[in-house]
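Justification of resources, computational component.

The compute hours requested in this renewal are based largely on the per-chain cost of generating structure records like the one below. Each record pairs the submitted sequence with a full structure-token output. That output is archived, and it is also reused by downstream analysis tasks.
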Amino acid sequence: MKKKLLAVSMSFVAGAALANDYDDRWMLSPSLIFTATDSAKNLESNFGLGLGLGKFLNENWSLDFELDSSSFDAEDTGGSVDQTGLGLMARYHFSEPGSMRPFLGMGAGYLDHNGSGAARGVDSSDLMLNLSAGLRKSITDRVGFITEVKYRLDTDDYVGTNSSYDDYLFSMGLNIALGAASEAPAAEPLVEPAPQLDSDGDGVSDQNDRCPDTPAGMAVDAYGCHDGDDDNDGVMNSKDQCPNTRAGATVDENGCEVQVVIELQGVHFDVDKATLRPESIAILDAAVKTMGEHGTIVVEVAGHTDSTASEAYNQKLSERRAKVVYNYLVDKGVAAERMTWKGYGELSPIATNDTEEGRAKNRRTELVIQD
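The structure output for this chain reads:
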């Protein structure tokens, strides 16, 4: 029964795969900008337009090439000054993708000034530096909203009064993704294997036969074994190296007890986090279905980490991860008395901790069947 359960449970594990957890499409970002100029420039603040092209480099960092243009009336001399900025902005986003995400930004570029009318003599450009803070929110799969406050250090002394000027830019705009978003592969449906036949012809069906290769014509007991199986573990006495296995235990080919572990592949965690990602939900829902179809098994939810940070810290982190999965299964209807949870920290790796790929595998959660 335990071997059958393991086969059924693994059917949802094998089909699960992780997709990119961030949108890596190029994004076009038109915006409306209000620029409050430094009073030393003697220019009236005004609205302008901006356009950016960029993308996320990973879950948190984005990089954008940006162009903005505004025209300002000169307060004292008359005429106007056109100001055009061209630069590169890097932004670090907090919170999870898909939520309201605050961010901080920094960047640099060139700022060009051209005058007309009484300000016609203004024609120069120099370096600018930008610092910003803002909010980003996805509206649809393709369109998002962004608002930002940017401090700009203008090092171009075109007015002839200061060595630099402090401008403030307030913008609102859209992010428009170019191309279709990549989709995570759907989890394969959980399918109960069809009942098997009696392959060795001993009168015991394969699904109940603990000795499936009995020689033809050999008398067998109710478990399909011909020379006895005193501990009822499915291994004949003549081959049983552990003859007193406890009742119901899962054993190997030598009749010795082994631990049955169902690894929830796809339910992995980022470094130093114990929150479920959206792609983990399908895996856990399949586990809930399996637990419901096999209502007598008892499991331990085991949390594991990689070796990043101290052993004591990793122990507490693994406990939090195990508790998160345990709480999800309980909330979905799995009886609490059928489960326990425990953290094992970094002490049971299944891959090397010397590579990022290995560390990602070690940040895992397992269901350990308890007999």
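DSSP finds four helices and twelve strands in the chain. The chain has a mean pLDDT of 81.
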